[in-house]
Amino acid sequence: MIDRIFLDTNIWVYLFSDDEEKRKSVSDLIRDNFKKIHVSSQVLGELFNVLTKKKITGIEKAQEIVFRISDDFPVIPIDKEIVKKAVELKLRYGYSYWDSVILASALICQCAICYSEDLQHSQLIDERLKILNPFEKK
To answer: How far is Cα 54 from Cα 125, in angstroms, rounded to an integer?
Structure first.
């Protein structure tokens, strides 16, 4: 497995939140791993939705953020391979379909780590992808 990493939507949201501590943690995580980060089209869509629905930013600013992320990092589209893998993961691990799409995207682009606050910290998926909560106390 390559040292690529994947950030779940909730991690990206903290980069623009009022939570100073989590915003700094995410900012540091991105800065320290910039060349390793991959993102999916699903995460970009979810990020845009959260930023606008929760009024974290306006529509134009959310658009700017999503465009900047899509320009800065490789974007994995949801395709047939990811859908099939997501269904397998859902059946095997019991995550929701959409969480399974996140995991499938990370696996298919050969990420070693998926940072998420919502998924089970330290779980190993398919013996290749480790889920880590970046805010988990050590």
So the answer is: 31
Q: Are 131 and 116 in contact (CB under 8 A)?
A: yes
The C-alpha torsion from 35 through 103 and 25 to 39, rounded to 10°, is 40
Q: For 9-61, what is each residue's pLDDT tens digit?
A: 999 999 999 999 999 999 999 999 999 999 999 999 999 999 999 999 999 99
Domains of the chain with CATH codes: 4-132 (3.40.50.1010)
> Of 113, 125, 128, 119, which Cα lies nearest the Cα of 32?
113
Does the predicted model carry a pTM greater than 0.85?
yes
